[in-house]
Amino acid sequence: MIFRNLVRYNSDFVEVFVTDLPSSSESVVSNTVCEDSSTMLEENDYLGCYRAEAPKSYMTKGWESYIYSEGQKFEGGVVEFRDKLRKYAIEIGFSYEFVRNDKKSKMMGSKVVKSIVLDKIRANPNKKAIDIADEIKSDYGLDVAYRTVWYGTELAKTALHGDEAESYAQLLWFSESVMKSNPDSRIAIEFHRETHRFQRMFVTYGAWMKGFQSCRPILFIDATFITNKYKGQIIAASAKDTNQGLYPVAYAIVDSENESNWRFFLEVLAEELAKHPMRRVTFISDRHVGLVSAFPRVFPNNPHGFCFRHLMANLSDKFPAGSYLKDRIPYLFMCCAYSRTSEMYQFNMEILRNEGGDIVAQFLEDLPKENWCKAYFNGERFGEMTNNLAESFNNWVLPLKSLPILYINDGIRVKSMASIAARKQDAQEWLSELCPAIEKKLKENLEVGRHWRVSRFDTYVYEVHCQKYNSMVNLETRFCSCGEWQLYGFPCSHALVVIQQHGSSPYLYVNELYKVEKYRETYSFPINPLPSILKPVHDFGRDAVILQPPLTRRPPGRPRKKRFRKRSEKTRVIKCGRCGKCEGHNRKSCTAPI
């Protein structure tokens, strides 16, 4: 045995008495080279794929120097000593026992795994245990049980983010600090007055609300699940910036998606919107029952558009799989939704009702056309027919949803702070009057109608002769008979042909909310940093409120990390890079003979 006397320590240092340390000449594998080594090297050059592999240098190599002399001291105390002793023993290749402390040495246990994966978990909190086990095998050459790796990652998460219950106790500090460092921000926290158990919270930053004034007046609202210990949901309102990018405006953390929580979120949101120049904001949602009930009570005069993709999926589910109508009826419904005139809507609706019968009639019974048809929508929708941007927000916060509630809030703040700074910097280099995504769309529309003929009727009124039909364009009123210019606030192909014929610049007829100037205004309001050096850990006053986590019950089975997908949602087909087949496997798991 190498270690005979273990372990004497005090509160500051650990003293280790080491005897019989192996010298550099007593290596397990000899470093001497035989006389025929040169011959072997020459043979290796001609063996091709059968040549001997060069030995790999594992990341455990440095562990052999963790303990190197008698009387060595460890300033990290017994914790540092035990960690380094385990790693030293693994690399040198011996076992040991703590005479009084430990009766069993687990060697490569969860604590060693924790010290290895701390940086990995800090970079990616959702890193899977199986992937970490593979990396340990590749980097360190060690086989570690899955359960050991999983428990080690949990220890690492606790070390990085603290206990999830204590995270709730820091929310009031977070709220006060944010509103102090970021004026005009709003964080409203509701909790039970007697038990101090957390109920729900609303968060918006002053920078978000100010920046939203330069975005199109549309808010996409939806909810997504939280996957940490205490579960819950994030309700969010997001907008599109002038370059079609995601721009968060407000969010709330609640226990479930019900009418009470939706009303709480919408009421506080209405108060914040009222602090800025009044604009008639359009809302687009997936028509959740609680939201549909709460919305008219809070925003009675605001347009509310239903996500067309969700409506089409719900209608498709009413027909059996394999039925001709399962694809035909959603297509006809889409024709009705995208109708730009009432005449076109009536024509398409008659076909839909005739082919869909009672099923379609019942589906449309409680579905007002003002909420989903372009021709009858009474607000500015800018051509937005789906709630896809809300799904973008869900993916944006996906890496944070498994963290404690404090780190969910702080993670959103940091991500948004970095995004605002980066986009502000990018916009300084743009030379065009329009944002890149809008400039690309403008060029595409110009290409479509290059071969069309144009006839002038009046000073600002023209007729465009297309291949199948004619369109009337009025530049003075920004009107096109196809309806696209009015709906999008962006010149259609007919209008652009006329603008060129008229000798004007297309930029003069593009809505200001698509221009670079508005983009720069949006990102001119930064989110200020939040130093946590003054963050109180356990120093609460005598009368201070200490928030407690909500009472939750863990459902049976393994916790689910991903949401249930609808049958109508299309998933990406995986094509194997080895055999070229689309059978749900990839190159790594392919077993096909080649």
Mind explaining what this structure looks like?
The chain starts with a strand and ends in a 72-residue tail after the last helix. The chain is globular, with a radius of gyration of 32 Å. Helix 4 (129-140) crosses helix 5. The protein is built from 19 helices and 13 strands. The longest helix has 24 residues, at 342-365. It has helices at residues 37-44, 77-92, 110-123, 129-140, 146-161, 164-169, 171-181, 206-212, 259-273, 289-298, 308-316, 325-337, 342-365, 388-396, 405-427, 436-448, 484-488, 493-502, 516-522, and strands at 5-9, 14-17, 186-191, 198-204, 218-225, 233-240, 246-254, 282-285, 304-306, 453-456, 461-465, 470-474, 479-480. The strands form three sheets. The protein has a seven-stranded mixed sheet, with helices on both faces. Strands 10-11-12-13 form a four-stranded antiparallel sheet. Strands 1-2 form a two-stranded antiparallel ribbon. With 594 residues, it is α+β, with helices and mostly antiparallel strands.
